[in-house]
Amino acid sequence: MTDTAERVRRAARDHLGLTDLRPGQLPATTALADGRDTLAVMASGGGKSAIYQVPAALLPGPTLVVSPLIALQRDTPAYGTSSGDGARSSGGRRTG
């Protein structure tokens, strides 16, 4: 296991309480933590939020996540607030 993968596992445990990562989470999360652009296509409930949140805990400075998922827009600021980090959500509303 790479150093980054071990840091990802530790951050997932420490920040989100995850003892295990779901299939596909470790490679995507490790790639993001290494600073690589990453596309993760997963089913609902597949653990996409953790893929964004864990590297954000490892990387210096703010992290911008652009997602059309309303659930992710709600979950991420709640995580940031509970971890002591500032987090904001800017969700557009559809009209008409």
How would you summarize this macromolecular structure in one to three sentences?
The chain is an all-alpha fold. It contains four helices and no strands. The chain is globular and about 30 Å long.
Describe the structure.
The chain is mainly α and 96 residues long. It has helices at residues 3-16, 25-33, 48-58, 70-82. The chain is globular and about 30 Å long. The mean pLDDT is 79.
**Strand count:** 0
Give start-end ranges of low-pLDDT stretches.
Answer: none
Fraction in beta strands: under 5%
How far the N terminus sits from the C terminus, by CA atoms, comes to: 50 Å
Radius of gyration: 13 Å
Tell me, rounded to a whole number, the average pLDDT. Answer: 79
Structural features:
96 residues; mainly alpha; 4 helices; 0% strand; EC 5.6.2.4; isomerase; hydrolase
Topology:
Layout: H1 3-16, H2 25-33, H3 48-58, H4 70-82
Helix pairs in contact: 1-2, 1-3, 2-3
Biased composition (Low complexity): 80-96
Biased composition (Basic and acidic residues): 1-17
Region (Disordered): 1-22, 75-96
